[in-house]
Specification:
The chain is of the alpha+beta class. It has three helices and four strands. It is globular, with a radius of gyration of 19 Å.
Length: 131
């Protein structure tokens, strides 16, 4: 039985990999990659746990459109000094002022510690740090 479960997990990983390679959405890619890795490591239960974790991570790293980055780079705003880590997935406090990106209501931006940062306006989580 154990050999059958491992074979099934390996087969699931092989089937999921082409979908991962073709995926356009960070969430889909994250779920597929997490499920494939989890299946290989932990079998069917690992596939479920890995898929959930991969979906969460995939959502966090789905990049904004190039037009958003271009707009943020061209804008002139003051830099805000901030003691926390400015990394993707970090949540900025309400004291950090963010600005809307015209025509892209899913994105706000700010400049923190001289780094341009794209932010989710609903959660205030950092979506991308432009370097």
């Amino acid at each position: 039985m154990r050999k059958h479960v491992l074979s099934l997990a390996a087969a699931a990983a092989v089937i999921a990999l082409p979908g991962f390679a073709m995926a356009q959405s960070g969430t889909v890619a994250g779920v597929a990659a997490g499920a494939a890795t989890g299946a290989v490591v932990g079998g069917p239960v690992g596939a479920v746990v890995g898929g959930i974790a991969g979906g969460a991570i995939g959502t966090a790293v789905n990049p904004p459109p190039p037009e958003v980055r271009t707009y943020v780079v061209q804008e002139d705003r003051p830099s805000i000094a901030y003691d926390g880590d400015v990394v993707v997935g970090a949540t900025l406090p309400q004291t950090v002022e963010v600005y809307p990106v015209p025509r892209y209501e899913k994105y706000d931006y700010t400049i923190v510690n001289h780094q341009r940062v794209i932010v989710d306006p609903y959660t205030r989580k950092v979506v991308e740090v432009i370097r």
